[in-house]
Structure prediction request, 383 residues.
Amino acid sequence: MSSPATDERYAYIDLVRVVAIILVHVFHTGMFFNTWEWHVKNPDLLPVLEPFMTVLHFVRMPLLMLVAGAGTAFALRRRSLGQYAGERTRRLLLPLLVGMILVVPPQVYAERVFSGAFEGSYLDWFPTVLQFRAYPKGNLSWHHLWFVAYLYADVLLTLPLVAWLGTPRGGRFMEGLSAWLRKGGRLYLLALPLGLGRLALLRFPETHDLIHDPKVVVFFLQLFLFGHLFGRRPELVERMAELRRPSLLLAALFLPAVFVEIPGLAWMRVLLVWFFAWSAMIGALGFARQHLRSGKPWLAYAQEIAYPFYILHQTVIVVLAWKSLVLPMGPWLRLPLLFAVSFAVTLLGCEVIRRVPWLRPLFGMKYIAPPGPDKRTVSVQTA
Prediction:
């Protein structure tokens, strides 16, 4: 989930990442109100939100993995393979472990109290986390940080391939593949392996536990590799910019497949759904590339806090949603209020993390030593 916030050439990647994380916050706020299973629930539900949230479901996390893959390609331009692996470990594995011990547990506690499975204070309950029994039987979980775990697994799994792509032979392969994909509408064909992979593993449920989740593991590994390719061959993103309007038209054409079952043709629906999602992702990257050709100060700041924002946001939403249940208000008032307050509290948490040097690496940010009495330190977030 990292990219060079100070490299103006890739500002469009930062923009897409920031927008995707905001959409994740919108989605998780909505989860408190729709009819889908979640950690805590509002007593008055809003099924009307579900069509919008269904569309977000197919785009938000795939888009985030796509740009994360591109970010790894940018990181390799400044590092050796060993430095790259070490830096990804510091920025992914360390925040994941910290998140599982300190950030996620309040969500699990709220869920246990909400469901009636526990009565008592958080301090009374927290030692159960340190029993290291996996959720849902136990209370140790990564919850929404599953994405960080999968991204780190993809980094490790692709190290041999990444090393080969850095060789002259690997470079020639990517150059030839890029030349082929830039012709006509061939970029859209990358939706085919995404859809076929989902079909081949259709019988497997989505567990987000990494070990028993082959459908999601394969799918996000594909997206990671596609993003890595785009990061290494920026001319492919330039082609996306050329295809930005046709991409959104195609996405609109395939959109009904998200909502309409096709009797006897379930396989076709799966393919059409992922052609929709892939077209939407190409359109998003294309428009961002076309309209953001240089970095902006606000974007540099948003990119710097994007990762800690992702780590914190769901815990803030769950806890505030649970606590808000004592307030007498209808769902249409609670929904915007929960979104606004949780967004503000998450931003405040990010600002605290950003300003405390020892907290920064625990949430995936670069460590910056406190300035001495005769010098100032400038905060720069690198890939």
